[in-house]
C-alpha cells in the first residue's frame, strides 16, 4: 500500500461561508477516526474567506475510497449541495 495525499478545496457561494465552514468542521472528527486516515486538517484561505482547503494523508487509495463512501461524507455532500460554488479534489503521491 502506497501512502497518498489529497488537497480538497471547497469555495462557498457568497453568504454561505459560515454554514459551509460549520459543515466542514463537522466532518473532521469522524474522518480522523477512519481506518487509514493519517492526516485530515481543515484550513481557511487567508486571502479568500470563502475558500476552505483540506490537507489530507491516507495510508492507501483504498482508505481514501472508503472515506468517500462513508455515511458522514454522504450526509455532508447532501447538506452543502446548495452552499458550494466550486469544489476540487486532487489526489497526489509524494515524489521527493
Automatic annotation (TrEMBL):
UniProt keyword Oxidoreductase present: yes
Keywords: Monooxygenase, Oxidoreductase
Membrane-spanning segments: none
Pfam families linked to this entry: ABM
An example molecular function term from Gene Ontology annotations: monooxygenase activity
Domain ABM: 4-93
Residues in coiled coil: none
InterPro entries registered for this protein in UniProt: ABM_dom, AI-2_Isomerase_LsrG, Dimeric_a/b-barrel
PANTHER family listed in its UniProt record: ABM DOMAIN-CONTAINING PROTEIN, QUINOL MONOOXYGENASE YGIN-RELATED
Name under which the protein is recorded: Antibiotic biosynthesis monooxygenase
Organism: Paraburkholderia elongata
Amino acid at each position: 500500500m502506497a501512502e497518498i495525499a489529497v488537497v480538497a478545496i471547497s469555495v462557498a457561494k457568497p453568504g454561505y461561508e459560515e454554514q459551509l465552514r460549520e459543515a466542514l468542521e463537522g466532518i473532521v472528527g469522524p474522518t480522523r477516526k477512519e481506518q487509514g486516515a493519517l492526516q485530515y486538517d481543515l484550513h481557511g484561505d487567508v486571502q479568500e474567506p470563502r475558500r476552505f482547503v483540506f490537507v489530507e494523508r491516507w495510508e492507501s487509495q483504498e482508505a481514501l475510497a472508503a472515506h468517500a463512501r462513508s455515511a458522514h461524507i454522504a450526509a455532508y455532500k447532501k447538506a452543502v449541495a446548495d452552499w458550494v460554488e466550486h469544489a476540487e479534489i486532487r489526489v497526489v503521491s509524494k515524489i521527493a
